[in-house]
Model the fold of this input.
Amino acid sequence: MIKIIMGEEIIINPTIEVEEDLVQKAKEHVNIERQVIVHVVLRTNIAWWQLRIWPSTFLIPKEGGGKSKLLNADKIPFYPQWLHIFGSSHRFTLIFEALPQDCSVFDLIEEIPQQGGFEAKGIQRNQSDVYHVEIRD
Done:
């Protein structure tokens, strides 16, 4: 609809066409914004040790539903690489897919074919989806 106000043509409720690839990129951006960030401090009594994370590490909602996959990690290498640690603690960050919206409590579980996988259970969901957990080995 076009109105003329004080000699100027003004379009009211214009039809807007958006390219499909822009719509798709916007949807991907929403999913990125919903990622879950877990900052971990790992503590041990050992002075020299090795550390790595397996891609088979998940956030698992207590209410059931799908697992959130590990997308990226900072300051910890992925299996099969090792990081050699000198000291009794190490901090690293894990980035996961979004949790289901109805999730209120979840576990961080590293599912591996050997002993010693990371576990942090009963993590209470918050609005920011940024968490700080401590794991003792």
The mean pLDDT is 88. The two ends are 68 Å apart (CA to CA). DSSP finds one helix and eleven strands in the chain.
